[in-house]
Design a protein that fits this description.
Number of helices: 10
Strand order of the largest sheet: 1-2-4-3-5-6-7-8
Order of helices and strands: EEEHEHEHEHHHHEHEHH
Helix content: 25-40%
Radius of gyration: 17 Å
Number of domains: 1
Strand content: 15-25%
CATH topology: Rossmann fold
Largest sheet: 8 strands, mixed
Structural class: alpha/beta
Number of strands: 8
CATH architecture: 3-Layer(aba) Sandwich
CATH superfamily: Alpha/Beta hydrolase fold, catalytic domain
Distance between the termini: 30 Å
Length: about 270
Amino acid sequence: MAEIQRVGDLTVHVEGQGPQTIVMVHGWPDTQALWDPQVAALRAHYRCVRFTLPGFDKAHPRRVRQLDEVVAELLAVLDAVSPHHPVVLLLHDWGCVFGYALANKYPDRVSAVIGIDVGDAASREHVASLSAKAKLMIAGYQMWLALAWNLGGAVGDRMTRRMAALLRAPGAPSAIGSWMNFPYHVQWTRGYPRTPFAPAMPMLFVYGTRKPFMFHSEAWAAALAGLPYSEVHALRANHWVSRNAAEQFNDLALGWLARLPPQKATA
């Protein structure tokens, strides 16, 4: 049974046992339920921590959240669940954007990172690697979701659910709505500050190949694969790799985690 903690506006679920803590951060249009297959596979050996991102739960206040604010809320979760030991971050989609920023700012709080499907997205190298068609597709779905955020209400929610269905997102439609689109509003107004992630800790990057464009550049993936204890793997899946190829992904994650050097406590 999960232990429930309240950290600010977030309801944090802690399941499993083990010396290491894995903090799972989802993306759009998901909730903490995205990680059900991973918790089932990992909880026998690791403490699995998950929550619905700030603003992605309809019960949260509907407002824009800046990058520093989200990072501060993630840090508060780390401080609550693992105050003396660094954690492993398991990230997907916008969770990668927020989690990479956290790891860049507080590298001593993160022992390792597992990133799913989003690497150096929006970097100069990534943008240069995209075809004109891919750029139009990215602009199309993101601007649609930004518009849905601004419209809000029933119309915005229907627009959001329609796009989620078109992209084959695994989340329940009842949990999807325009309230979780604020990152796209920010993306097409002022934009989140982006620093390409060059991890100071071991990283496993897993991406899906069954999609019309990638969210990383080949140069970034090649550089990552050359770092100590870091690996890059492609799986036959769409953007939601942890669901489309759950068994393969879980096996990769468990094997990689077992090969990592022991972590050290923080002050």
